[in-house]
Amino acid sequence: MEAAGTEAAEAEAAEAETAEAEEAQESGGVPPGAGGRWGSVVGVGVAAPGPLDHVRGVLRHVTGVPQLAGFPLRDALARRLGLPVVVDKDTDAAALGLALRGKESLAYIHLGTGLGAGLVLDGRIHRGGRNGAGEFGHQVVQLDGPPCRCGRNGCLEALCMDAVRRGRTDEAARILGVGAANLVSLLGVDRVLLGGRTILSAPDAYVDGVAAQLRAVVGAVGAVGAAGAASNGAGGGRAVRVELAPEGTRTVADGAAQLVLAPLFGRAPGAPADGG
Ligand SMILES: [Zn+2]
């Protein structure tokens, strides 16, 4: 038994999904070999850029790709693939996959072409009432700062992406650390897990930079770099751990597969199946 996890962590990927779906429609609405071709595949989990309505699987105003707003991605794919489809935000899918590993509280921070976070509190995904609890990148950290593509100014994402564009990884990591420290201070999470292609391009710099910022704010911090070696002293029993998300580039895709698999096995902390 398996599920196909799809990471559409970036907007381009979401467009690819749409294009695929349109291709299927052109072939008569039935994918080649539907009903037999999929074998033991029980469903498709799609992790797409937020914000989106995870209950109905409808995309909202994805920053940078306004034309996708309102697109019913779940229903479109389900109709054309002939399989059950679950759509969730990329960061929440990753958080789901990570939540299944334990009962702790953690923040998964994803830095790719944008910045987002998924929250797990006491082993359950925390979405907030409006599914926006993970809009981590759009916390304003500099009043009257540079414009953000969300329309506000001085968002964490705008500052961080600007540093990335200028090749200033140290500065980007420090900015990320400020945001992570805000999360840890507010929510008391035990672990900060970093993922996404930008972080994976310089994993140790990001882990160390975020850990340094956290250490300045919350004290005891243990950082685990790309080689898996702890650095900077792991601190006391309540030290916050900063480390790379365990599956590297697969964190989000594995989480997407769990969108389908976890409810089948009665393990859906905060997943759509128990949320209506
Ligand atoms: Zn913003």
UniProtKB/TrEMBL annotation:
Signal peptide: none annotated. Pfam families: ROK (PF00480). Gene3D superfamilies: 3.30.420.40. Residues 1-35 are annotated as: Disordered. Residues 9-25 have a biased composition (Acidic residues). InterPro entries: ATPase_NBD, ROK, ROK_cs. It comes from the Bacteria. Belongs to the ROK (NagC/XylR) family. This is ROK family protein. It comes from Streptomyces bathyalis.
